Amino acid sequence: MRRYRVVYVDAFTEVPFAGNPCAVLPDAQGLSEEEMQAIARETNLSETSFVFLSDRADFRVRYFTPRAEIPFAGHPTIATVFLLAEEGRFRLRGARTRIELEFNIGVLPVEVEARGGVPRQVVMTQRRPAFGATFSAGEVAPCLGLDAASLRDDCPSQVVDTGVPFLLVPARDLSTLERIQVDRPALQALCRRAGVDAAFVFCLGGFSPEADTHARLLDPWGTHEDPFTGSASGAMAAFIVRYGLKPGPRLVAEQGHFVGRPGLGVLEVLGTRDAIEAVRLAGPAVRVLEGEFLLPDR
Fold it and tell me: Is 47 a catalytic residue?
C-alpha cells in the first residue's frame, strides 16, 4: 500500500472553515497524472495541489480541479507555500523570505512574511496581464439573469489573463452581485466564445469597510461557487487600474460571503495604468485537516 499525506488548508483566512479550502499533498513524488486526477476528484475541492522536487525552482507544483489539470492558480499557491513554510520545508530568513515555484506556466517568485519565525501570510506574484476580447453589457448581463443597466457603462466586460484567463464583468454594486441568477447554457456559450472557463463578476466596495472590491466566480460547468479566487483577483486588480476605476496600487479584495466562507486578500498592481508589469497578491492561511490517501501498490 502506498501512502500519501494530505493536508487541507484554508487560504485567504486566519480562521478555519472560511476562505478557500485546498487539499495539499506535500510529497507527491511517484504519483501518476491519472492518480493525481483521481485524487482531485476524490477531494472534490476547487483545486488540489501536488508538490514535487524541481531542478528549476525550490519546488514544482501541479494543480488539479476535479475536471482537469490547470496551469496556475492563486489560492493553492497561498495554501501550499504557507504549509511548506509552517512545516520547515525551507528556511525562513527574517521578516520576508523569497522562494521560487515551478508552475506549468513557468517559474514565479513567492514570498512568505513571518513574525518570530512563524509564517503569517504568503505573497505571490502573477505575471504581466494580457487584455483580450471585450463584450458588451447586452451580451453578458442576460447570462447572469441581469439587465444591461446592472453592469457598469464606463468599461466593457473583458478577458484578462495573469496566469489563467477569466472574463471580468464589472457590476454596478454589491446588490447586483446578490441578484445574479446564472443561465448555465448561456454562460457556457459565452465562456466558449471568450476562451475562458469562468466569469468573474465584481463591484467596488464590499461587506467590510476596508474592502475595495467584492467578487463572485461563476463557473457554468462547476457544481459549487469558488469562495476566493486568487488568479481571478489578480486579473481584476489589473482591470481596475487599467480602466481607472481605482488608482491602486493597493486594493483589498473580498470574496466568499455569498457562500458562507468569507475571505480577504491584498493586491498590489506594479507599474503604471498603461504599462502594468505584474500583480502581487497576499493572504494568510490555516490548516484544518490532515490524513492520508491509501493507494494500491503498482
Answer: yes
Contact, 199 vs 166, CB < 8 A?
A: yes
CB-based burial of residue 214 (10 Å sphere; 0-12 exposed, 13-18 middle, 19+ buried)?
buried
pLDDT in tens, 104-156: 999 999 999 999 999 999 999 999 999 999 999 999 999 999 999 999 999 99
Superfamily of domain 130-282: Diaminopimelate Epimerase; Chain A, domain 1 (3.10.310.10)
C-alpha to C-alpha distance for 292 and 252, rounded to whole angstroms: 36
Instruction: Indicate the domain borders of the chain.
Output: 2-126+284-295, 130-282
User: Which of 14, 47, 87, 111 does the annotation list as catalytic?
Assistant: 47
Decide whether 2-126+284-295 matches 130-282 in CATH topology.
Answer: yes
Name the pTM for this structure: 0.95
Class of 2-126+284-295 in CATH: alpha beta
Identify the H or E element spanning 28. none
**Which cell goes with 189?**
456559450
Q: Is 224 exposed, middle or buried (0-12, 13-18, 19+ CB in 10 A)?
A: exposed
